[in-house]
Sequence to fold (444 residues):
Amino acid sequence: MNGPAERGAGDQGGDQSVDERYLGFETDPKYEQIATPVARFKYYGATWLITGYDELLRALRDDDTYSSEHDLPTGSTERVGVMTPATAIRAVPTEVDPPDYYFYRRLLGSTFAPSAVRALTPDIRRFTTWCLDRYIGTGQMDLFHDMIALVPGLTTMRLLGLPLEDSLIVAEAVHARGDDRFDLNPAWEVLLERIGQAVEKRRAEPASDLISTLLRPGAGDRVCTDEEIVEICFAVVVGGMSTTAKLVLGALSYFGVHLDERERARQDPEFLAGAIEEFLRYYSPVPFMCRTASTDVHFGVRRIRKGDRVAMGFAAANRDPAVFPRAHEILLDRTPNRHLAMGHGIHSCIGSALGRAETTVMIEEVLRRMPDYRIANEYQPTAEPVRVTWTDRLQRGLVVTFTPGEHSGQDFHVELNRLDRLDRLDGLDGQSPGGRETARDAQP
Ligand code: HEM
Fold:
């Protein structure tokens, strides 16, 4: 695979002090297009990685053969859901097969419909504006820690009907480093506690949030159990936050170097919309999700056996050269661009409109309010290609400098709770003032 430096990836007179490799993600092996469309893959019990675009489409349409089911308790059967490593909580509807699957997906439909996303968009803009207002007068901020990681947290909390003050804790739960990110770390415990409290509250006093919707009867008058409500909230939190954050981090990193394209995106909403699709394809925030084969399958010479874990390689298929010419380059006006970054088939992303709306608003506001931002992370050029993973990129953040601007005048404000200042998990309502911090103070 060519490195981005060799490709020149359309440099347009950007900041030469930032090497293209510094921005790249594609050296992570999970993103590579492998010569065979169905490759051997050793990753937390997975055996196969489907990398070919056509092969992946076929597999994603065949949910009889490729089961998403997560039988609990984990390990009790061979069907351990779609995540690697398997999670202690089942994610619903992500890890449910038909016919039960349809009950949940229908229940969620109205919350994620385009009209509901449009209604939520002013809040997304308010959250973004709040994040930017905090630093706009200073001329420097870490776009990742101070905005990109927070806005999806705030939006998700608003959607679910949970306290906005806990957005930072939820962001910590999701952006925790390493492969144990879905273990029930203390941040997750706070979140689960909050969901329990909200269920009690909304049962007595329904509101217009997802938890209230989940308390109402669904198809056949069936009502979700409390456990199912937790499983759905878990899927929404896991599904909606780091995905959107990675996408925006990739996009704003790219625009930090490609200044002509940044200017075009600032002026032309249609160009920006197309650019976001290309960022989705190229960065593929969900590199793969697993399935369990429910029967033996032949893929040419490959034989997937019943019970094998099969990774659906969204990122690799999005670089299939048979479908995407110059697949390893970012071409912001690429058409057609039928990427699979949001999945395909019955489990395709239910939050796709919301994720796109959050991404659009964050990019629009940054380009509008700090149109001359430059990447200012400390950076040491290296002679050898570097392996850059998402974990590296998230830890590094995205420090930028810009010409200071004016506060928006907006009066929205939220005091964020910080995990290590919470006295006890119970009694969260009696939060002591010492447990509240600003986003900047709470930055890791
Ligand atoms: C840029 C942002 C996003 C990307 C790249 C993304 C990607 C994906 C992908 C690839 C899948 C399919 C998983 C599979 O087949 O196993 C998926 C499903 C899902 N996503 Fe997203 N997603 C994004 C944003 C969101 C948002 C904002 C939410 C909610 C707030 C969300 C919630 C979900 C849920 C609940 C599912 C499971 C759907 C089902 O099983 O029916 N996602 N997403």
The longest strand covers residues 38-43. Residues 82, 93-94, 105, 156, 235-236, 239-240, 243-244, 247, 285-286, 289, 314, 341-343, 347-351, 354-355 surround protoporphyrin IX containing FE (CB under 6 Å). The longest helix spans residues 114-133.
